[in-house]
């Protein structure tokens, strides 16, 4: 039973959580999960062809099931482009007010919200949606709020929380403490619509069984993963949510996040002849998936300076000093031809990108939110791509096997400039084009706040039980292939052999049979 108590909290308090992608492939693929390594011109990395077909998935164009978005009309004013220009822009981490309880942990926060919920239920005056509850269960929730976790996952989940709360839903926090999730669920089973987390191995221990029919049913549990993946939920693909859209045939649930475009872009002619490199860590220049040889930067800077006076590459990265871990006994040299601005605050990063004529990807990190923010300021993204075959036309998107940012890759020039990885001529061509042409500011329609609100509202009100019953029916008939061997194999390309073994064990017929009670 819930007990009455007054819940006082500052109205500005926003508690964020993120999903840390602990094991992920180097790239997020365009419609297919394929080769995890940049293949063009590589000599010192694992040969992807030696991994076998099971590890790659099937061949195919990234365009399958995806619509190539048209460019904005030529006469669009690059200073506005009809986009919302509310403040709060480049906010990477929410401002959290801990003034009333500096040390209040997730349980205290959740208990306070439960008391508030009990109060409104007892009074019979709950606002719309207040009695519908989402429990967030992930360790990075705690990391985002209390330890300034600033990754893309943090941005994504903070946006989800804001969307739920502005629609009146109750959000509860459980860190990755599944025993606490179990405790909270048993107190308000009818109110809990979804439990969102990322560790289904631990969650499995509290799921409903015939011996414990009051426990959390697996069909109320959503797998949250920044990158579009499937195969982690014991129920099925629709129980996966992601920050980026995946292939339509996966039948997963795209949530995404919203974004506003702040201020007014600097006219292209008033910007510096500079390209900002998207790399906050030195290791990105040397990591498993660098798109460019480090010798490209001084060579291209010299060549481009002849036509663009004062041209330079700039970046704001930190040296993590991990030469042994990274496999470089002699350490990682600072790349020549790149001016390092050092570690930047979100505001400093935003300013330097806004003053640049392009944002350059170098292979990592994949699917970063930064290109979206750059496009909001009329700064195009130079997107490294890998061709399906080396002799194919690099300008034809149908020939791209993978890209650093698959969603931005849907856009044509002058928003997205594709450059073939490890190809110097393609590298310079893309930069030269970006320096020569202006780019109107752009935001994807799905990033409007009302679009995110609609998706979050649907997540809370979807008939998960009815869908789960259909999954069970198909599995009883042997028609559900969600956990087939080939799918498990290609979803975890790049994962350790031990991880693959664990996943395959969990997808066995024994495990699937054990799921039956959760549908009752």
In brief, what are we looking at here?
The protein is of the alpha/beta class and 520 residues long. Among the domains are: 106-258 and 450-475, no CATH class; 262-442, 3-Layer(aba) Sandwich (Rossmann fold), CATH 3.40.50.2000.
Q: Can you tell me about this structure?
A:
- By secondary structure, this protein is an alpha/beta fold.
- The chain contains 15 helices and 14 strands.
- The model is unreliable at 1-103 and 483-520 (pLDDT under 50).
- Among the domains are: 106-258 and 450-475, no CATH class; 262-442, 3-Layer(aba) Sandwich (Rossmann fold), CATH 3.40.50.
- It starts with 27 loop residues before the first strand and ends in a 6-residue tail after the last helix.
- 28% of the residues lie in helices and 11% in strands.
- β4 (192-197), α6 (200-203) and β5 form a beta-alpha-beta unit.
- The strands form 2 sheets. Strands 1, 8, 9, 10, 11, 12, 13 and 14 form an 8-stranded mixed β-sheet that branches. It has a 6-stranded parallel β-sheet with strand order 3-2-4-5-6-7, sandwiched between helices.
- Written as H for each helix and E for each strand, in order along the chain, the element string is EHHEHHEHEHEEEEHEEHEHEEEHHHHHH
- Label the structural class: alpha/beta
SS element count, helices = 15
CATH H-level superfamily title of the domain at 262-442: Glycogen Phosphorylase B
Main beta sheet strand tally, sense and closure: 8 strands, mixed
Determine Rg (CA atoms, Å).
24 Å
Q: Would you spell out the secondary-structure blueprint of this structure?
A:
Blueprint: E1 28-29, H1 53-56, H2 106-123, E2 133-137, H3 139-146, H4 152-166, E3 170-173, H5 178-187, E4 192-197, H6 200-203, E5 221-224, E6 240-242, E7 253-254, E8 274-277, H7 296-305, E9 312-315, E10 338-340, H8 346-354, E11 358-360, H9 370-376, E12 381-387, E13 400-403, E14 416-420, H10 424-436, H11 449-461, H12 464-476, H13 485-491, H14 497-506, H15 509-514
Parallel strand pairs: 2-3, 2-4, 4-5, 5-6, 6-7, 8-9, 8-11, 9-10, 11-12, 12-14
Antiparallel strand pairs: 1-13, 12-13
